[in-house]
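Write out the 3D structure for:
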Amino acid sequence: MLRLPFLPLGFSERNLDELELGDAGESLGRSAIWDPSSLFVAGGLGQEIADRIRQAFPNSVISNSTLADADVLTGHLGKPIGHLGYERASGQGRLSGTDADTLEREAACGQGRIELARKLGPLPDFDPDSQAPFDQMLVDGEFPQALATSVSTLAVAKRTRRPIYSDDRYIRLAARREGLKAYGTVAVLEALVARGLLTDAERQGARSRMLASGAWGLRASSDELVRIQEAANWDITRQVRTALTDRGAWRNDILQMWERVGSFLEEAYNREPRDNDRWVVRVIDAIDTAAPEIPPVQRVHSMLVVAWQIDQFPPSNSDAFFRAVLDALRGLPPYLRGLPPIDLPLFTMDQVLAAFSAEAIGEDDRRALFLRMTKRLSALDSIRALSAFVLPPRPPPAPSPK
């Protein structure tokens, strides 16, 4: 199993998440086949939660390759390695080491992984007499260890008709193409809570540990992130960094991501208005990392639309919060706000009014929308908006008489 700075777990896509939750719920009480990723993730949740998950799928199995993989790689986790990065703000390269928390967490995951693997029943990777494609692939070819565990997991699942418990999204997709049930730890935790086998507090603790490990696809709510930040006295946490830089979420669930970001920023502002600029910069920088294909101007514009709450009347957030977000966006460094600089509120109003034309919503509703947006601006910005969108242009000065 590759040592990655993050471990994608879910798809951040509502329909797929619900499908996997259904598979996990239907599979409770049945034997499943685990793979290295589920061993690693579940093993990292602590022995009590890991055993609870294992007991929910009695008589579960692993392939021989997965057992061998657990034995080989456990000794490599928890050892420091260097990371070469790049800081856009300074334009400089950066070499950093693995921090102590990460090393401790990796070592615990590795130990939990091997303990789980030894409690599951190993099965041969393939049946040499079978003509099934996955069995034949293993008979005919020599695979690297990481690939052998994936193919053997699919082969055993197909041969024994067991569901696959994997935190590798690609394995789960491959299983579905073969008509097999598949799910990951995110769905398992939800299914256990629904069945009364896990408390909500235990689920929250497990999710927090996964976020701290850099796991994507958890679709953490703003309330969940606020609870984590409050426990850390609002010092930026690894969990919130992970949630904000979830590449899958910004691609597959972008509208919900913006809603979560808006709610989270509002809570952060209500706690300490002076920290608002820092949080706005963190969010925009996170999007730059997670979804660089979104143009800088679009990121800034979208955040302002979220804070403006043009779809709510009256808005649920305060005018002070909205104006604080606008001021923070105006103060972004050029590499985050994009070039050339734009008049942000006027640009955003123009984009919104173009999307909601008089033909689409009626002239009266469009006028009401404009007035609602203008009302939230400062006095100076309101005057500029009226001048740009309402007042007729001034006629050119008359030529002076000769």
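The first helix runs from residue 14 to 27.
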